[in-house]
Amino acid sequence: MTRPIVIAAVIVILAMGWIASGQFGESPLKSNLQQVALAKPKAAAPAVRVRVQTAESRITEIVLFGHTSADRTVEVRAETAGRVAAVDVQKGENVTKGNILARIVQGDRPARLAETTAWVEKAWVSYEASRKLEDRAFRSRTQLAADNAELESAQAALASIEIDIANTEIRAPFAGSVQRLLVEVGDYLKAGDAVATVIDLDPIIVVGQLVEGDVRSIQMGDSAQVRIGNGVEMVGRVRFVSRAAEATTRTFTVEVEVPNPNDILSVGLTAELRIPANKVMAHRVSPAVLTLSGEGAIGVKIVDANNEVEFIPVTIVADTTEGIWLVGLPEMITLITVGQEFVVVGEEVRPVFDLNLDPNTVQQQPRGLLPIAERGAS
Questions:
Q1: pLDDT value at position 377?
Q2: In the listed set 220, 245, 279, which residue is the last one of a domain according to the structure?
Q3: What number is the average pLDDT over the span 164-183?
Q4: Which secondary-structure segment (H or E) carries 206?
């Protein structure tokens, strides 16, 4: 019995020693797990499609929305009193300068013209006689002066009646269109009463409002592209830029003069104005590449020299059918065109370059472009 007890005691002691050694040393199982973990490959960097592009020179445009207006608008008024004898035009009719719009009954004006003409002739004879007699000292200088005054009075009266007769024909002050007719045959007019409204549509004026930041970018004489709401596109020139802001809107009025020889354009049409302003270096991109930062700023994501994602805020200076134009970017960038929404700033990525990339452009090493050796490996 003694020997089995000894053997059992030895086995217990060896087992306890083995267990104790496991508490202070590294178990084979744990060591194997650590080796497997170390041998496990790191997660591959996400791939994004990129394009290398260079900024282009572009003239920025100030875009305004306004309306068309007549170059001149005049309310033609009677300059003498009388009853309307005839209206010679219709509303909407085009007229040339001097066309008769309406006629006033002359009444006794022809008789007064004849009377005044005779007075002038009589005064002229008296004056001439006095002048000849005064030359021979048979008539005093005082009498000559009186006869001269009489002649001048007669001549003034004749000019007055001639003007009054001329004013019985109310004429267009310039070529244009009759917008309104305010009289009918038989109406009685006093001097100063309105007869018609005439507007001048050639050139036509497009009026818009500039914000404070743009007012110094536009000068009188600048060219402007005008697009009317009905689809007509024309080129005009800036003829007026206000230097005083509107009290209510705090904007500045700008007027663009557009030729309108055949009265194609009418007053009151909605119009878009595009006026060239400053020359900038800008990138043309698809709107799809735009993204937002955590603070809500609009920008794009690029790949830097370390294959890491970088966000750059931008400003949109033009929106065209070919794409949008951005400023605020370096001259050359490696732009993420696909996958920008699935990567975050600072994350390492694997750029996949567009097949139409210009190799001559790549070798210029723009900001965010991989070294050539690394680019080939990607």
A1: 37
A2: 279
A3: 94
A4: strand 194-210
At 342, which CATH number?
2.40.420.20
Distances (CA, A) of 196 to 29, 100, 169, 179: 107, 11, 13, 7
Length of the chain: 378
Query: Can you give the CATH number for the domain in which 141 is found?
Result: 1.10.287
Tokens 């036509």 correspond to what residue? 204
CATH, residue 239: 2.40.30.170
| Three-state secondary-structure class, residue 8 | helix
Backbone angles phi, psi at 117, to 5 degrees: -65, -45
* 74 belongs to a structural domain: no
Q: Note the helical H segments in the chain.
A: 2-24, 28-39, 109-135, 141-166, 359-362, 372-377
Residue 307's domain spans which residues?
A: 47-55+286-377
Residue 336 has pLDDT above 70, yes or no: yes
pLDDT level of residue 357 (50, 70, 90 thresholds) = very low
Question: Beta 176-181 vs 94-95: how paired, if at all?
Answer: antiparallel
Count other C-beta atoms under 10 Å from residue 75's C-beta. 12
**Number of domains into which the chain is organized:** 3
What average pLDDT does range 50-64 have in this prediction? Answer: 87
Confidence grade of residue 364 (pLDDT, cut at 50, 70, 90): very low
DSSP secondary structure letter of residue 117: H
In a domain, 20, yes or no: no
CA torsion 181-269-69-233 (nearest 10°) is -130
* Average of per-residue pLDDT values in the chain: 83
Q: How far is the C-alpha of 74 from the C-alpha of 260, rounded, in Å? A: 19
**Side chain identity at 25, as an amino acid letter?**
G
Amino acid code (one letter) for 81: A
